[in-house]
Amino acid sequence: MDRRTLLAATPVLAAAGTAAAQPAAPALVGRPMPKLEQPEPLPPDRRVGFAVVGLGKFALNQILPAMGECRKARLAAVVSGDPAKGARIAAQHGAPRHYTYENFDEVARDLAVQVVYVILPNVFHRPFTERALRAGKHVLCEKPLATTAADARAMIAAARSADRWLMTAYRAQYEGFNREAIRRARSGELGPLRLITSDHGRPVKPEDPADEWRIRQALSGGGSLHDVGVYAVNAMRYLSGEEPAEAFATIASDPADPRFREVEDRVAWQFRMPSGLLTQGSTSYSYRETKRLTVFGEKATLRMDPATDYDLRRMWLAPEGETETEILLPLRNQFAAMMDHMAESVLENRAPRTPGEEGLRDLLAIEAIHESARTGRWVRVPPV
Ligand code: NAD
């Protein structure tokens, strides 16, 4: 029944036949399904269950709230070192189960959990990924995938032999503005790409518990480059669709600053891409929060600032000879989109867009950057 026919058929309470009678109130009726802006969510029993490991700043502020916007993923369990916190957070977010780091392996018997999402300090990414794979679960693992390329390779091999998917949680690659930037950069719309620049940094604050471990090499595996510089490294690769052939870099850290006793502060680097495209990046744990990138093509320049923020993305296009104009797009929840992608990989049994290899490639580039800074020479970035 169309809208007009339905309106005509809507029963109206009969008015008394006198002039003084009040107009009858319309009755409540069911209406046709409205047009949806996004596909309908799956019913809970058909969604893919996620166990979130590590209830720190990122898990509690971004990931667990984003579960409410998922259409294919649902929260099935949380894992915390503190059982009371685990129970409280599980209750708040409707997770039927909670585990500790000690009894986590029991998740093998939990059929509601299909994916384990590792959100721990970087050095624990490999051991928890391997435990989850041994328990028969697929793994979504936070960035950087591991502290070293060797660990990342071991995780990929473990996933392959367990016949489970391993996905690197590169949220930007599931986010609308970045997807649009990839489309424009790779479609030729900007002309042949000449240079990509990206700067990602923020002041690290050891008084924040989430930053305490970030300045300990044994827990983080590295400083600003592993933590935030990885967004720039990843963006240079996903915007161009090319893998860096060589890296050149300089690293500088103030020896008097206690934050940089173990990890680096500022890194400036360049990649030579196989096509001749150059990229230039910077990262820091001591400059003002910055998350920007620019793609310089022969026909146009595309700029994003912020490019990889949690809540805001902005993008401008400047064609040759014209003024820059802003490109407006809807802001959607990138965390939910990323988790739904992992859920789709499980439901459809297909490799995720950002598999373990995607995290490994960035770690190989990061290691080449460190080696170049040590040796003062261009360093070849090895293939996966
Ligand atoms: P956090 O310190 O807030 O959380 C870490 C969690 O691990 C806490 O629950 C903590 O209790 C637990 N933990 C267990 N053993 C620990 C130990 N020995 N030392 C410290 N913590 C320990 O950190 P976070 O900011 O939530 O980061 C966690 C992971 O998520 C990191 O790998 C980080 O790179 C990643 N992350 C990703 C994004 C993103 O946008 N993709 C944003 C922030 C963090």
Number of discrete domains: 2
What gyration radius follows from the Cα positions, in whole Å? Answer: 25 Å
The largest sheet, given as strand count, sense and whether it forms a barrel, is: 9 strands, mixed
Tally of helical segments = 11
The CATH superfamily of the largest domain is Dihydrodipicolinate Reductase, domain 2
Mean pLDDT: 95
Order of helical and strand elements:
HEHEHEEHEHEHEHHHEEEEEEEHHE
Proper CATH architecture of the largest domain = 2-Layer Sandwich
Describe the structure in your own words.
The termini are far apart. By secondary structure, the protein is an alpha/beta fold. It is built from eleven helices and 15 strands. A nine-stranded mixed beta sheet has the order 14-13-12-11-7-10-9-8-15. Helix 4 runs parallel beside helix 5 and helix 5 runs antiparallel to helix 11. It folds into two domains: 126 residues, 3-Layer(aba) Sandwich (Rossmann fold), CATH 3.40.50; 176 residues, Dihydrodipicolinate Reductase, domain 2 (2-Layer Sandwich). Strand 1, helix 2 and strand 2 form a beta-alpha-beta unit. It binds nicotinamide-adenine-dinucleotide. The site of nicotinamide-adenine-dinucleotide has 20 residues, from helix 2 and helix 7.
